[in-house]
Amino acid sequence: MMLFGIAFSGAWAASDADLERACRPFHAGACSEAMGRWLPRVPGSTTEMLPTRTRVQDAIVDPDGPGPRVFLAARGVAGGTTFRYGGVMLGAKVVYDPLNHVAYYDEGCCSWERVVVAAGVGPPPKPVATRSLAGLHTRSGIHLGTTLRAVERIYGPAIPQRVSGHARFTTLRYGRPFSSNGTAKLDCTENHFFLFRNGALTGIDFTTAC
After folding, report:
1. What is the pLDDT of residue 193?
2. What is the average pLDDT across 132-145?
3. Beta-bridge partners for 20
4. Burial call 23-49: b when 16+ CB within 10 Å, e when fewer
5. Beta strands in 98-187 (DSSP E)
6. Residue 93: Cβ within 10 Å count
7. pLDDT classification of 70: cutoffs 50, 70, 90
8. What is residue 17's three-state secondary structure?
9. Distance CA 26, CA 102 (A)
10. Where are the alpha helices (DSSP H) in 6-76?
11. pLDDT tens-digit series, residues 2-38
12. Which residues, 6 or more positions from 153, have their beta carbon under 8 angstroms from its beta carbon?
């Protein structure tokens, strides 16, 4: 199900071939615009809509991965396959669970980083690392299948947003400002986006930007 795919190539008004040609001298076989388009994204996570303020500081916990159990942006998704897209602008590290149709990846550039867990995702266009992702959950205890009301009990009340053109899908959006250097100046935001299908969680997007 490619409901949430976004074609990044158009952003640079260049063909896939041109973008991959620009990428190959720096990243060789890791360049793939098709993989960039395949990445599932939670609707609203790439917009300027203001999220509901929360005090929850959360993270993805990967108990079955080969690396650290808790996702840290600087380390990336443990054991994932790395590729580049958008020419040399963007990079991601991906793991796919073919049995449960779950994708788990991080991507970023410059001063932002995103980690996504999404269910109902078809196979990627190129081979990537595969393993069971059934154990993925957040540090606060949220996992795929959690109800919208249960997320609100953890993060606080929010206004559910319908996904345009997809009546069964709803999102909750939360934000937690923080300081990048320990001062009183809140110059960064930790955004938490949750996607629900018929009231059950089907996508998680944690994005940090400064």
Report:
1. 93
2. 95
3. none
4. beeebeebbbbebbbbbbbbbbbeeee
5. 102-109, 112-119, 129-130, 137-138, 161-163, 166-178
6. 21
7. low
8. helix
9. 30
10. 16-27, 33-38
11. 344 433 333 444 566 655 666 665 666 677 778 888 9
12. none
